[in-house]
Amino acid sequence: MKEILEKDALERNERSILVPFLVGGVIGAGIALLMAPKSGKETRKDVMDFAVRTRDAISKSIDKSKALYVDGKTAVADAIENGTALYEGGKAAVVNAFEAGKDAFLKERDRHREVA
Question: Which of 7, 42, 79, 93 could form a disulfide with 38 if both were Cys (CB 3.0 to 4.6 A apart)?
Fold first, then answer.
């Protein structure tokens, strides 16, 4: 459980770093385009390169998010399975203890009846 919480905190931290990074990149690119003394052809090429890099970064982020979702879903399913197994084991132990107590009671009762 501790590992899941640590992983969740790490994911939130990564998300909080990614958004300002992307926003800063877009703003920086816009300022660079306005300030750069380049021809239209060079500027279009720079914009296209930036768009491709941004698309690739977003694609990687989406893939990573999907993987994290699958990991989280698996962790929850495993926790439920482990909890169910633990419950069943505890239930069996209680039933066995109850039956042992009942058997001991009946045995002692019968022993006392024979003496009396």
Answer: 42
